[in-house]
C-alpha cells in the first residue's frame, strides 16, 4: 500500500553499494526506517542533502506494518534547513539533536504534538540568525514534556536543587547524588519555563553552558535507560565553548 506522510530525518546509514536506510520521525506513523535505493549513485547523489539530520520531507512509501524497514517510493523537500547545512555551528547542533532523537524516539505510533514540536523547532532554528547558542539546551528541555518526564517549571522559594531522579526542585540535595548544583538548577528552571524567543536572555559562559548540557543529558539517561552514548556531544561542546 502506498502511503504519503511528512517526516523529519534523524539519521542515515549506508545500505548496499548505492542505497541508504534513513531513520525518520513521521507525522503519520511515528518512528520509521526507510530504504532509499540508488541514492548514493552519481545520478541521484544530489538528493542526498535532503537526508541530512533535521531535513523535513514529503514522501510516499510502500508501507507494510509488519515490515521493519519500509521502502520509499518518492520524496521531496517539505522544508530544507539550508542555513543549518551552511553554518558549522548549526550543523553541529543538527547532528547532535539527530543523534539524540534517534536514540530516544522509539514509539512506532503517531504523536502529532511531538511531530509539530520537532517541525516548529527545526524551522525556528534554521531561520534564527543570531542568539542561538542556547538552542540545543532549550530543545532538550522542551522535549522532556513529550517524553513524559518534564519537571516543575519554576523553583519554589527555598527549593534550589534539581532532583534528577524524581524530576523536581527540592530544598536539600538528595542522598542518591543525582542532583544539580543551585547555580545549574536555577539555569535549568529558566530553560524549562522559557520559549525559544527568550533563551538568548539566559546569558551563559561556554563552560557553564556545557555543564547545563551535561546535566540535561544525564537527566535523559536516568529516565531513558536505553539512551546510547551521544558521540557528537564532545564536538558540540567544543563548538559552543
What percent of the residues sit in helical stretches (DSSP H or I)? Answer: 25-40%
Beta content: 15-25%
With strands numbered from the N-terminus, the spatial order across the biggest sheet is 1-2-3-5-4
Element pattern in H and E: EEEEEHHHHEEEHHH
Query: What distance lies between the first and last C-alpha atoms, to the nearest angstrom?
Result: 49 Å
Report the average pLDDT across residues.
91
How big is the Rg? 19 Å
Largest sheet: 5 strands, mixed, barrel
Task: Identify the overall geometry.
Answer: globular
Q: Give the beta-strand count.
A: 8
Helical element count? 7
Topology:
Elements: E1 2-15, E2 19-26, E3 30-36, E4 56-62, E5 70-79, H1 82-86, H2 88-104, H3 112-127, H4 135-147, E6 161-163, E7 168-170, E8 179-180, H5 182-192, H6 206-223, H7 233-239
Parallel strand pairs: 3-5
Antiparallel strand pairs: 1-2, 1-4, 2-3, 4-5, 6-7, 6-8
Helix pairs in contact: 2-7, 3-4, 4-6
Amino acid at each position: 500500500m502506498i502511503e504519503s506522510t511528512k517526516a523529519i530525518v534523524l539519521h542515515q546509514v549506508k545500505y548496499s553499494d548505492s542505497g541508504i536506510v534513513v531513520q525518520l520521525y513521521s507525522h503519520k506513523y511515528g518512528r520509521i526506517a526507510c530504504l532509499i535505493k540508488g541514492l548514493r549513485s552519481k545520478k541521484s547523489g544530489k538528493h542526498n542533502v535532503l537526508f541530512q539530520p533535521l531535513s523535513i520531507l514529503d514522501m510516499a512509501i510502500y508501507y507494510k506494518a509488519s515490515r521493519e524497514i519500509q521502502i520509499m517510493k518518492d520524496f521531496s523537500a517539505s522544508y530544507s534547513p539550508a542555513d543549518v547545512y551552511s553554518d558549522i555551528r548549526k550543523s553541529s547542533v543538527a547532528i547532535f539533536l539527530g543523534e539524540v532523537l534517534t536514540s530516544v524516539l522509539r514509539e512506532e505510533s503517531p504523536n502529532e504534538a511531538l511531530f509539530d514540536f520537532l517541525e516548529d523547532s527545526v524551522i525556528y532554528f534554521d531561520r534564527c540568525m543570531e542568539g542561538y547558542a542556547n538552542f540545543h539546551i532549550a530543545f532538550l528541555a522542551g522535549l522532556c514534556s513529550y517524553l513524559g518526564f518534564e519537571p516543575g517549571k519554576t523553583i519554589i522559594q527555598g527549593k534550589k536543587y534539581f532532583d534528577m531522579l524524581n524530576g523536581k526542585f527540592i530544598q536539600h540535595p538528595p542522598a542518591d547524588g543525582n542532583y544539580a548544583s543551585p547555580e545549574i538548577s536555577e539555569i535549568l528552571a529558566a530553560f524549562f519555563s522559557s520559549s525559544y524567543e527568550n533563551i538568548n536572555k539566559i546569558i551563559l559562559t561556554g563552560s557553564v553552558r556545557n555543564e547545563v548540557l551535561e546535566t540535561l543529558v544525564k537527566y535523559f539517561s536516568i529516565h531513558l535507560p536505553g539512551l546510547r552514548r551521544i558521540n557528537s556531544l564532545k564536538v558540540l561542546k567544543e563548538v559552543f565553548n
